User: Fold this.
Amino acid sequence: MGIDLSQFHQVFFEESYEGLDVMESALLNLQPDTVDSETINEIFRAAHSIKGGSGTFGFTDVAEFTHVIETLLDEIRGGTRNITSEIVDLFLQAVDCIRKLIQQHDAGEPREIPEAVELKKIFEAILSGNVSGDESVSSPEQASSVSESDVQGEDGSSGHGWKIYFKPELDILRTGNDPLRMFRELESLGSLRITADVSQVPLIGSIDPEACYMAWELELDADVSKSAVDEVFEWVVDESELRIEPLSSDDAALETRSETTPDTEIEDKESEIKMELEPTPSTPASVSKPTETVPNSKKDPSKVEVSSIRVGIDKVDDLINMVGELVITQSMLGELGLDFTMENLPRLLEGIEQLSQNTRELQESVMRIRMLPISFTFSRFPRLVHDLSRTMNKKIELKLTGEQTELDKTVMEKIGDPLVHLVRNSLDHGIEMPEDRVQAGKPETGTITLNAFHQSGNIVIQIIDDGAGLNKAKILEKAIEKGLVSENDNLSDDQVHDLIFKPGFSTADQVSDISGRGVGMDVVRRNINELNGSVEVESTEGQGSVFTIRLPLTLAILDGQLIRVGEYVYILPLISIVESIQSFQGMLHRVVGGCDLLRLRNEYVPIIKLSSIFNIKSTAQDMDDGLLVVVEGDNMKVAILIDDLEAQQQVVIKSLEENYKRVDGVSGATILGNGTVSLILDIPGLIKLAGVQRYEYKVVNSGDDCAA
Amino acid sequence: MARILAVDDSASMRQMVSFTLKGAGHDVVEASDGKEALDKAKGTQVDLVLSDVNMPVMDGLTLVKELRALPSYKFTPILMLTTESTGDKKMEGKQAGATGWLVKPFNPDQLLATIKKVLG
Assistant:
C-alpha cells in the first residue's frame, strides 16, 4: 500500500512544539513536593502524544527518549513516586532535548544529541532504582501488536493445522466482539470445520438475546503458526476458554467422520454451523516494517521558523469590513467623476477625505494581521530566569506585564535575542546575591519585570530590575581605560550609563559565561537600531535599572523626516535624528586629512555633505546657508549638511534592492504624495561612503586639534 | 465502506488515521477528546470507534463506558489506541467494554488490517 506518512510530519512537528511548551510551563508551575494531579496529567499527556506520534512517524530516537520520560511521569501521576525539584529540572532538560531532536528531524538532519543520551541514562537509573515494583523500563515496541513474527513453525506448527476449543464469556457480544468474525478470519488462513456446542443455550423463555451461550470446536486445516491462531483470539482470550492444540494426522483422519455427523438439534434455536470452504491462500498475519522515513527535504536548519501566522477571525472580519467601506467610497467617487462639474467640488473633497480615512483604517487593519501579542516572546523567560537563577544561586522572581501588547511578527522574532541578552544582563550584573540584598535592606528575592505597552505609534518594552543599578564609577573607569572618554569630560549620569552600549565595553571582572563578554550591549543596540528602534537605560545605584526599548509597530512603515538637497528629497529615519541646527561657517573645523568637523558642545562630529556624496547640486552655497542634521548610526554621530528640512511623515518602505539593486547609503525607497520616488537614507552606509574614519573625536583642549 | 469515528488529541494522528481510512473507502468522523466524540457519536451513528486513551476533557476509557450505555452502541466495535506501556491498559479497556486494541505506534497497513478484522 505505502501511504506516504511524510505529509503528516509538519503537523506533528508543530503540535509537538506546542506540546513541549505546555510541558515546560506546566513544569515551571509545579511546586516541588506537591502533586497537582491535573498539571501532572497535562505533562503526561503531552509527553504521551509526542511519544505516540514520533513512533508512528518513524522518529525512533524521539520515541525512545520520550518513552523514558513518560514512564517516569506515569509513576508520578500514579502516586508511586514523589516529584522533587531535581526531577523537575531533569524534565526541563528533557524538554530541551526532545525539542532539539525534533528540530533536527524538522530540518531533515537527524543526529544524535549527547545530552539526550546522558539524560536518558539518568532517567533509566532513576527508574530502575525504584523499588515499588513497577515495570522495568522497556523500549517502546515498534508497531508490534498486530504483527507477529511470520517465522512459521516456531511455535510448534505441526504442519497439519490446529484444533481449537473456544468458549467465549457470556458478555462477549457486549464488547463488540463477534465469534463469527473470528471464524471468518480463521477461514482466511485455511480450511475450517466448525462444530457448535449448544448445550448451554437456555430455553427461549430465559434467553438473554444479547448474551452468548455457545461454544465451538474448530479444526483449522492450514500450515500456520500457533501465534497466527492466537492472534485471531487476541482480544478475547482472557475472558474465554480457549484451547489450541495441533491437529494430528489422527485428527485429520477423523475429519471424514465429522463431516457426516448429523445436525444437532435444539428445540428452539439454530443448529450446528457447519462450514467447509475452499482454502483461501494462507495469509499469515505479516507485518510491513514501519517505514522509517526521514524527511527528504533538505531544509536549512537555521530556518526552521514557521512561515505562517495564525490570525484571529475578528481581525479578518475587520479587514473585510474596511474593504467594504473602501468599495463604497470608491463607487461614490466614481459616480461623481462621471459628470463632474465644479459644483460638485465640495462633495469630491468630502469623498477624498472619506477615502483617506478608509485607507488609513485599512492600513491599520492590515498591519494588525501581522501583529501578535508579545507574550509569544515573553513566554521563554520564565524558563530562562528559573534556570539561570538556579545556576547563579540567586533568588529571582519574574513578572510579566502587558503581555497582550501586540507587535509585528517579524519585529518580535528579531527582538527576541536582544531581550534575552538584556534579561541575562540584569540577572547576572543587576540582581545581587541574596545575602547582599538582605544586607542592603532589600528583600532576598530580586524582581525582574518585563513590561510592554504602546506609546505614540511605537511599542515600548521595559526590562526593570530592583538590583544594584549601574555602577557609575566603574563604568567611567572602564571607559577611560578604553579611551572612550577622558578624565576631564563632564558627563551627565545618563551619558555615563549610555557608555555601556559602546563597542568593546564590559565591566565584568571576569568574563562570565552568561553575559558580560563585552560584545553584548553594543550588539544589542545595533540589532535594535536595525529594526528602526532604540534602546536606553536609566539607573539608580543601589536601587535598580530600567532598560527601555522603543520599536516601531511594523517594519514596513517608517516615521521619516523629509530633507531636501537641491531638487531632491530624501528621507531620514526620525528615530536616528539627534538634533538639527542652523549651520554657519564658524562651526566648521578642518582637520589635516581632510574631514570637516562640527563642534557640538564637547565633541566633534564629522560633517557629511550629501551634495558631494550623491553628486547633486545643492542650492545652499556654503555652510551659512544650509542646515545640519545630527544623526546617529552605527554607534557614531555624524552631521549631515542639507538645504532644508521638509515635513515629517509616515512612509511606506519599499525595497530598492528588489526593484532595482542594492545601493550603498540607501536602505529603501518610498513614493511621496506627489508621486515622486524618495530614497530612504541609511546612516551607516552614508558614513562609509563619505569615508569618515571611525575616530573618537574628543575635545582635548580649547584648541582645534583632533586627537585620534 | 463504513463510518468510523476517530478520536485522538493529536492532530497528526487523526490526520494519518483519517487519510488512511478514507483512502480505503470509509467515511471518517474526527474528534479530539472524549466529550466531542460522544457528542458526535450521538449525532451520527458510526460503525466503528477508534479511540486514544489519554485525552483531555474526557479520556478514552470513560468514552467507552459512556458509549456502551447508549442503546445504539451496545455492540459497536470500539478499539482503543494504546501505547504499549503495560498489559494493564489493555485490560482496563476491555473492562470498560472495549472490543480490543491497536497498539501505538502502528502504520497505515496495520491500521487497515485491524479494521478489516473488525468490520469483516
Notes: The longest strand of chain A covers residues 446-455.
